[in-house]
Design a protein that fits this description.
Blueprint: E1 4-5, E2 26-27, H1 63-77, H2 80-98, E3 110-113, H3 120-126, H4 140-148, E4 153-161, E5 165-172, E6 175-181, E7 184-189, E8 194-195, E9 207-209, H5 227-244, E10 254-258, E11 266-269, E12 278-281, H6 287-304, E13 310-312, E14 320-322, H7 349-357, H8 370-379
Parallel strand pairs: 3-5, 6-9, 9-10, 12-13
Antiparallel strand pairs: 1-2, 4-5, 6-7, 7-8, 10-11, 11-12, 13-14
Length: 382
């Protein structure tokens, strides 16, 4: 609805002005009258400021808290947080590696398990430089290698126990036989490593002879076993395994075993019921079958030759008996052994060589085929 107001015409004479009641009313625009518009985007007069939109946002924190928040944002933006974390990590590492709470105070903090022949003093001697040292500065790999240098130790493991203890696990070597070392007997394991005989140990093993690298001195000074000695030990273990299979336990009859010949294992056997020990040549294979043959005919052979001292069973189906005076006796086949096979036919190797050495026969003249030669013979030509 338009508002009627009285105005004075510009340029008019005030004297000639009409009274306010008699002045004509002009219809003005509502914006000029100061009334609000229906839309701010409509027509705006020039003398009014343009309204600027204000974004609605979160209320800003004030004071010290706002400044701290701004500094934190800048620090995160420029990577201060990774630097802070790195500093904390370095400080923690320095504390763990230098704090007295993580130090190995004494030998009571070292726990040992698995040792039977290795004494506790031998193990503690390896860790003597580490007493009082921080737990994380102890070189576990070097200590493990030093423990494995002890002859009786086959494998060792060293573990850290938080915060200030060590655990040592020992796996000892298992002896398998005796060896003659100087004037006494020492032990040897399956890897060919010589072991000092413990005073409290009791073992029932045969004595091995002919091993490579066995000399004088102390077994602890003996170098590591070479490949030849290891092969000899494997041959001995195969002999024991063959003789003890199926519950036979015939290896208990052996007192000495000579392994110097790779093709012949020589064992000194004392079977139950036999008055004396017999040296048996078992060859390089079929140990169980040959030893059973020896046991089956031992009484008969002793009746035939009471002075028998050794038996050679390296030849299948034959047994060569040896006495103290004659070690080259003629072979005497056992009664129940299979008969000696007939001599094999003459080898054809020489005939083949002879055939290869002789020139090949020429069945026709050079350049004349057989059919042409037969045709010439029929026609009487040469």
């Amino acid at each position: 609805m338009a508002t009627k107001i009285k105005i004075r015409k510009p340029g008019g004479n005030p004297a000639n002005d009409l009274p306010e009641d008699d002045l004509p009313l002009e219809e003005l625009d509502p914006a000029e009258a100061g009334e609000p518009l229906e839309s701010d985007a409509a027509v705006e007069p020039e003398y009014r400021r343009r309204r600027r939109p204000v974004r609605a946002g979160k209320r800003r924190l004030g004071g010290t808290l706002a400044r701290a928040w701004d500094i934190t944002r800048i620090a995160f933006r420029w990577g201060a947080l990774p630097l802070l974390l790195l500093t904390l990590a370095f400080a923690g590492f320095h504390y763990w590696t230098t704090a007295p709470v993580f130090a190995l105070h004494g030998s009571q903090d070292i726990h040992i398990s698995g040792n039977t022949h290795v004494t506790r003093e031998q193990v503690l001697e390896c860790f003597a430089p580490d007493l009082g040292r921080n737990l994380y500065h102890i070189p576990l790999r070097q200590r493990q290698q030093r423990l494995e240098e002890i002859p009786w130790v086959r494998h060792a493991a060293v573990l850290r126990i938080w915060p200030d203890q060590l655990r040592v696990r020992i796996q000892e070597r298992q002896p398998v036989a005796f060896v003659r070392w100087g004037t006494g007997l020492e032990l040897i394991d399956a890897q060919g490593v010589l072991l000092e005989r413990p005073p409290q140990g009791k073992y029932d093993f045969p004595v091995l002879q002919g091993l490579d690298g066995i000399g004088t001195g102390s077994p602890s000074d003996n170098p590591a076993p070479d490949a030849l000695r290891q092969r000899q030990i494997r041959r001995y273990l195969r002999l024991v395994q063959d003789l003890d299979q199926n519950g036979g336990h015939y290896s208990r009859d052996l007192s000495e075993i000579d392994l110097h010949d790779p093709d012949d294992v020589v064992a000194t056997a004392l079977p139950s019921g036999s008055p004396k020990a017999i040296v048996v040549h078992l060859g390089s294979n079929h140990f169980l079958a040959r030893y059973r043959l020896f046991l089956a005919h031992l009484a008969t052979w002793e009746a035939q030759d009471p002075a028998m001292t050794s038996v050679d069973l390296r030849y299948d189906g034959q047994a060569i008996l040896h006495g103290p005076a004659d070690d080259n006796a003629n072979p005497t086949p056992p009664p129940s052994a299979t008969p000696h096979p007939k001599p094999a036919r003459r080898s054809s190797t020489k005939r083949l060589l002879r055939r290869k050495s002789q020139p090949r026969r020429v069945r026709h003249r050079a350049g004349v085929p057989p059919w042409q030669r037969r045709a010439r013979r029929m026609l009487g030509q040469h």
